[in-house]
Amino acid sequence: MLALTTCLSGIVALSVPQTVFANDAASSHSPLKATSHTTQAKKVSAKKSAPRSTEAASAESVVVLGAGAARETQTISRRAIQEMTPGTSPFKTLSKLPGVMFTSSDPLGSYEWSQQIIIRGFDQSRLGFTMDGIPLGNLAYGNDNGLSIGRALETENNGPSTLTQGAGALGVAASNDLGGALQFTSVDPTKKFGVDVAGTIGSASTWRTFARINSGELKGGGRFYVSYNHQDANKWKGDGVQVQDQANAKYIQPFGEHVKLTVFGDWSKRKENDYQDLSLAQISKYGYRLDNITGNYALAKQIATAYQNGTAFPSSVENQDTVYYNAAGLREDAMGYGRLDFDITSRLKGFVTGYGHTNTGEGAWVTPYLATPAALGGSPLTTRTTEYDIHRAGFIGGLTYKIANHTIDWGFWFENNNFEQARRFYPLQDSGAPSSIHWYQGNSFYTQWQSTFNTKTYQVHLGDTWQIMPALKLTYGFKSLIVDNSARALSGNLMGTPTGTTYPSGSLSASNGFLPQIGANYRINQHNEIFADYARNMAAFDSAQTSGPFSTTTAGFEVLQKKLKPEMSNTEELGYRFHNRTFQASVTGYYVEFQNRLLAVTQGVGIQGNASVLSNVGGVTARGVDVAANWKFARNWSLFASYAFNNSLYDDNVYADGVVSARIKGRHTVGMPSNLANVELGYDDGAIWGNVLMQFQDKRYYTYTNDASVPANAVFNLNVGYRFQSQNWFLRGLDAQINVTNLFDKKYVATVGSNGFVNSDPSGTFQTLQAAAPRMVFFTLRKHFD
Known about the structure:
22-stranded antiparallel barrel, 48% strand, globular, Beta-barrel_TonB_sf, receptor, TonB-dependent receptor, cell outer membrane, tonb box, 9 helices, mainly beta
């Protein structure tokens, strides 16, 4: 094991200093007794002669390329996350890793309607996400089983984030990780008292405030922090705001040397006005700045009246879908967990976690397709909502036993999720513009549909890591997964009069008792290693009216119920890693078979909210290569680069009643570029730091037949900062940074598929594209008090 220790120490030596609050500590998943990171941070902060020294800044690497692992994996340090503008989604930081395609139409990547992450051709609905081991669900916009990481954890409290591109580990609490897993962590409270405050201002009238208090170690050994932030920004085009309030709290209490309790709580309330979904034809005619006309209620009414009466549209618009008056997303979440870690013996360790999450959500869209009744206001417009309510609770536990050269791991996960969803319409007055963003409660006049869903998830796993010889390690095991879905469609009503429902009630189950994984890592010598692995995974069905099997018609569901199969993936990887004191690199080739693919084809424009057409349509075969390198080529200078080639092709045409309805065999999968590349040049001397990142995305298709696509783009981002090196009370612990997104102000399409995908769009009129934000600048000041 001496050689392995030397290899790992070589990676740590690649540390590139990054700015961070002085008292940030390790994540909650550090070993029970391993407090070395926290202790080291405490010792560093105690060196008053150099409170922001290079030594402190170099405590962790920017990117660690998974040395010793039996699969492709990378970890992004929390300091790399802190380099970004506060409030930036950690997905944006992770997007520089090989094989990761992340886009959003806002500069911070936090606007959820446009968030899109695809890894090796698998979109976010087929990836696993956790925070401190707690499942975050599938991260769909209308999420039925979780919440986004931006609503679960303040960015200032992010610990290291780990990406596994091929398949998540056996114990990952996710029922849909066909294409990999992203595991986020929260920082622990420190053993020393401290207060952190920060303020950010920037383009689009952005401002953000943050404060956190660490208690330090209390009598009895416990410690905690509480934090709060408020973020407010205008949209970069059109009228509207994106506002979020959030609070986190975390408490750690050791009970002797062998038991530790961790409690975490999160509350978030987010309100965001939407950017309009665009088509290629609209971009060509109106440009990228076309947006909702929230400031012009009179024009919105004229458009709706023309559509409803069949008269001419105003000269500035083509039809009722050219522009909409307004749209917004509103989410309020409360999430918490309690985790107990315990050492039963020196060989046997375990943990058990209980968690809960509640969510109230609403997606609002002012629609010209239905007028407000005269008795309720008479506007030719109404506000159409999709309303969400999540109540989920679960338990996760595990045991680890070490014997001889084996480390045996067993664990379980159970979750019960009750989800309610409804489509309602609210009246608008003919005179006087409505409030642009607020909760609509208690005065709907039409419920188009409403349904309740229950999902029960049962997962167990058993695995072993066998150190066959000092240079050879084998990991193997399996998990069993059962997910039971049930739905009950309730009748709608129009002004108190019941109406029939066209959506299904019933149940489905996805189960597989043997989902194996096996991998090996062979250390050739001190600097070189090879690895190989295989994993088989299954994805459960969605329980929602807007996605999955229950999103189709009753008749369609009755057909699906008899023959629908859960999606499956088989992933094979072969890779090589090199690491020494100044350089680390990895190359991974992969082959993935994606089976029983579920295809949901959008019917009509998104604002109509029509039922989708869903079916099993064969498979996808993906082949590709991921390459990453991190080079400390001179004192204080570093270079990180990654490249990914992905060739994901549909295996089959789509059939309807025995006839080909879409000839997509051999076509590229939607949304995923064939080539991705990132190059980041960084500098850090302990006081001055900075980096410039270039990200390249190849062209992306948004139709299954590949007859419509958006062109490739290359975008640059700049981050620079200064850590004050002074004993002066005011300057000690003070950081300043400037972030510039889209440095050269490039105009391009950020997100494709915001309204779903279609078979073909020869005229380029399908509105499912989001324009990228222009160049934007942000300035942040941080101060630590101890």
